[in-house]
Every structure is written in structure tokens, then in C-alpha cells.
Amino acid sequence: TTLFRSSWASLQLAYVMSYTYGYDFDDGWIARTEKEFLPYSLSFSYSPSTKTFYRWSNRISVAPGLSTSIVADLLRPTNSYFLFSPSITFKIAKFLDVTFSSTSRNSVLYWYFQNNEGDFYSEWGGFPGNIFKDLIDSFRFDSDAIREASGFKLKSLNMTVSHNLHDWSFNMTLKIEPRLVTEDGVKRYDFNPYMTIGVVWNPVDGINTTIVDEYGEWSLE
Predict the structure, then answer these.
(1) Cα separations (Å) of 5 from 13, 48, 70, 89, 210?
(2) Which burial class, exposed, middle or buried, applies to 98 when counting CB atoms under 10 A from its CB (0-12, 13-18, 19+)?
(3) In this predicted structure, what is the pLDDT of residue 125?
(4) pLDDT below 70 — which residues of the chain?
(5) Residue 121: predicted pLDDT
(6) pLDDT value of residue 52
(7) Torsions phi, psi of 132, nearest 5?
(8) Cβ(199)–Cβ(165) under 8 Å?
(9) Phi, psi of 177, deg, nearest 5
(10) Helix (H) or strand (E) holding 103
(11) What is the pLDDT of residue 124?
């Protein structure tokens, strides 16, 4: 049950309580045996309006974008997470739109908080840190050690290309995300791209064709 929801400009805040099972921490989360009406989640999101910059006699425009959200799990705090999704869109002479974006997720928000004694939550692991510095460190491609130590982990890289053909619309999306696969009993991350190509007839948008390449296997939808 959502008890509180508020929005102002680009900010949104929501507080949820639910009749559910609570949890206690003892070398892992242990569910209680009886349901209670408990605080469930607290979420905060920020998506500022996009400002467009024009170049070459307004034939080319550049629009940076950002979407962020923090979800605090009030039942199991270690399940809280922070999503960070920057993007940039290029519009070329009303002919082609190209958008590059990425999504990073931080699932260890408890790293950055202290208890009343000033000690960090060592029973859950983690280290003292500044979340904003940690976010910057996740883009330190000059140092593998610093980047890999960051709590922010890259979840996907995306590129979308779209073209308006008046009565028809064409779009192509290329997505790269780490995928854990097991081969001969050995686990590894696979970074093969996921591609979608779509063509839509605008007067009848229910008639469309989409070609999907899912990790090397093409399908027509």
C-alpha cells in the first residue's frame, strides 16, 4: 500500500508500507513466521529536463539526459539499490536521431552508512566511502583496480538509431550487457550484443515488423 507519493519538478518521492513478513539478520536474512504491517520501501527518483544545444545553423542538435533512482528496501536494507542512467542524443538535420546511453547499478548502498557507534556495517561487508566519488570511480577507465572496486557496476550500454521516412519509421537498437553463461562447468561473462531492427508503417502502427538478433540468433516478429 502506497502511503505517500509526491513529485515536484523533476523529483519524485514514494513511501510504501505492506502487510508482509519481516526479516531479521543473523548471518543472512531470516524471514519471520508472522505477517505484520511494516515499512516496505522508500524510493527517490530524479530525471531533470533535457536541454538541447544546436550547432551548424541548427542542423545538428545535442541533448544530454539523465535518469536516476534510489530504492531503499526497508525490510532487507542490503537489497537497496541506486540506478544511474546517463544518455546523449544527436539529431542530425531532421534525418537521423542517434542516442547513446548506459545504465549502472549500485546494490551495496549499505557501504556508505554508519551506525550510532561510528562503525561501518562490517557484518555485511563493505568499506567506508563517498557515494559520489564511487560513482566517478566507476568511469575510471584509466585504472582497472579503481573501476572494479567501485560499488557501481555497468549493466548495459545502448545505442538507438531512428529515421523518419514520412509514412514509415525505422529504428535500430544495439544493446550490450554482461550475461553470465556456463560452458563445460565454467562460468564466464558474455558481452555479445543484442540487436533489434524495427520498421513501422505510421498510418497503421499495428502493422510493423521487427527483426531481433538475440546473441547471434535472428528472429522475425
Answers:
(1) 6, 18, 14, 31, 37
(2) middle
(3) 43
(4) 1-2, 113-129, 202-221
(5) 46
(6) 86
(7) -75, -40
(8) no
(9) -145, 145
(10) strand 96-106
(11) 44
Reading the block at residue 190, the C-alpha cell is 558474455
- pLDDT at residue 89, rounded to an integer: 92
Residue 177's closest CA among 167, 189, 185, 161?
189
Residue 179 has which C-alpha cell? 550475461
Answer for the pair 74, 41: CB distance below 8 angstroms, yes or no. Answer: yes
Q: Which of 68, 37, 40, 66 is nearest to 51 (CA)?
A: 66
What are the grid coordinates assigned to 173, written together?
537498437
Identify the burial level of 3 via C-beta atoms within 10 angstroms of its C-beta, where 0-12 means exposed, 13-18 middle and 19 or more buried: exposed
Q: Which three cell numbers stand for residue 43?
A: 524510493
For residues 103 and 153, give the distance between their C-alpha atoms in angstroms, rounded to a whole number. 9
**CB contact at 8 A, 134 and 104:** no
Residue from 14, 70, 73, 12 nearest 40 by CA: 73
Where do the H-state alpha helices sit in the chain?
131-137, 144-149
Q: Is 211 helix (H, G, I), strand (E, B) or coil?
A: strand
Report the distance separating Cα 194 and Cα 209, nearest Å.
17
